[in-house]
Design a protein that fits this description.
40% helix; 3-stranded antiparallel sheet; 10 strands; 243 residues; single chain; 4 helices; 5-stranded mixed sheet
């Protein structure tokens, strides 16, 4: 009897073990453990999905901007805007504020010069300077005149002094009027000039502005006396002959 009871208990233990093994292999336990293990994985896509609408515009905008910045039209426009603004600012600063103005004197090397007596006003002559160069040039003060071998320099008419230096672009002209002699005959030391030398000044009064010009005069020459004076350089012919 004792042996049979032990055998029954042993058989019962085997049966319980078999049932437990069967329960573990029926798939239910596997699904439960799988759901528990996969829960963080499932929540991660859910979390990513909930952030996507917030990040997507920013992300796509950032990526689009970066892509465009590398080669797209949007980036080029942005890039050109920045560089253009800087370039413009630098150009303005360098060209007109910080850097000194470029001075290029007009003289006999970059201009053509003519000198011709005029009928009105009487006893006047007009000097015309035309810029024949490819760059702007500046006419400062007044022309320094010398007839033949004269030993004195005609003085300027101070009332004709302009407010600014006359600058000539390529092909543009400026003028100076010359009072040759006194209309009332009050001048002295009259002479007839056969050759005229027109000198140019630089930045400071009486400084050398470069090569002089020797314009042609009428064959009979030009009469002048001690009243000989000259205007400052003018932008218009009328202003040059107004004195």
């Amino acid at each position: 009897m004792r042996t049979s009871r032990l055998q029954l208990l042993a058989a019962a233990g085997v049966a319980v073990a078999s049932l437990a093994l069967t329960a573990c292999q029926d798939g239910t336990g596997t699904r439960d453990e799988g759901a528990s293990a996969s829960q963080p994985v499932a929540s991660a896509p859910s979390g990513a999905s909930s952030q996507a609408p917030e990040e997507s515009p920013s992300g796509s905008g950032g990526n689009g901007s970066t892509a465009n910045g590398s080669g797209g039209s949007g980036g080029d426009a942005s890039g050109s805007g920045d560089s253009g603004s800087k370039g413009s600012s630098a150009g303005t600063s360098d060209g007109s504020e910080d850097a000194p103005a470029t001075f290029n004197p007009c003289n006999g090397a970059n201009t053509s010069v003519t000198a011709a007596p005029v009928s009105r006003p009487v006893n006047h002559m007009l000097i015309t300077v035309k810029n024949t160069g490819a760059q702007n040039c500046d006419l400062t003060y007044y022309p320094v005149l010398r007839f033949d071998e004269m030993q004195w320099v005609p003085q300027p008419i101070e009332d004709s002094k302009p407010q600014a230096v006359v600058t000539l672009g390529p092909g543009e002209s400026a003028y100076a009027g010359v009072v040759l002699s006194a209309a009332d005959g009050s001048g002295s030391g009259g002479a007839t000039g056969k050759k005229l030398t027109v000198g140019f000044q630089a930045r400071t009064p009486n400084s050398d502005g470069g090569p002089a010009a020797i314009p042609s005069l009428p064959a009979k020459g030009v009469y002048y006396d001690s009243s000989l004076t000259v205007t400052y350089w003018q932008s218009s012919m009328d202003d040059a002959l107004a004195y």
